[in-house]
Recover the amino acids of this structure.
């Protein structure tokens, strides 16, 4: 009986040790794809975990960028994309693995990000357009993270971003229906719901 109890205890300890080992890897590198994420449509993030429950990361990527009318000939209505440099997004995030199983963790995250940004209305024939050369965001997100013993990691997440400097988001005068944007879309574009996923490696 004692032998059986000792064997069971050793197996339980070994199992928990394996579960801890995969989360004890302090550094992780992630490639990220998504819509409206803190690093844009595509980017990368490096994370450091001082404790298996906490991950602190910094990253960069490319987002939608700004819009303007600079490229349009006189009399042409519409908008065009700003320079490529305006697409660069920078982000710093902290994630907490509030619940962990052997290879899965439920995460809650918060952080800040910034970069060029534009908002477009898609519901009218004469849509409103808004743009900010540099938008700052406060981000909150929920996610599920998978980590193999080898260090391979994958994560799916969804979040909410609130613009911290909304005065920087200005309507673009497209030359038609110019009063529509400032009158009907005073606060449009100041909040974003985002969705993304990542794959990477922890070591």
């Amino acid at each position: 009986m004692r032998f059986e109890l000792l064997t069971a205890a050793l197996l339980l300890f070994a199992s928990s040790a394996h579960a801890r080992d995969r989360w004890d890897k302090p550094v992780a590198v992630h490639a990220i794809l998504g819509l409206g994420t803190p690093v844009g449509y595509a980017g990368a993030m490096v994370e450091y975990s001082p404790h298996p429950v906490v991950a602190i990361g910094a990253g960069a990527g490319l987002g939608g960028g700004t819009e303007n009318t600079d490229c349009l000939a006189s009399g042409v209505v519409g908008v065009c994309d700003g320079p490529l440099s305006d697409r660069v997004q920078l982000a710093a995030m902290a994630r907490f693995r509030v619940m962990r199983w052997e290879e899965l963790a439920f995460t809650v995250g918060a952080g800040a990000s910034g970069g060029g940004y534009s908002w477009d209305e898609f519901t009218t024939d004469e849509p409103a357009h808004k743009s900010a050369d540099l938008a700052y965001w406060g981000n909150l997100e929920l996610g599920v993270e998978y980590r193999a013993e080898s260090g391979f990691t994958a994560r799916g997440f969804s979040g909410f971003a609130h613009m911290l400097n909304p005065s920087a988001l200005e309507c673009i005068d497209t030359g038609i229906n110019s009063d529509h944007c400032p009158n009907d879309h005073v606060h449009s574009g100041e909040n974003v719901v985002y969705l993304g996923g990542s794959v990477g490696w922890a070591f």
About this structure: The radius of gyration is 22 Å.
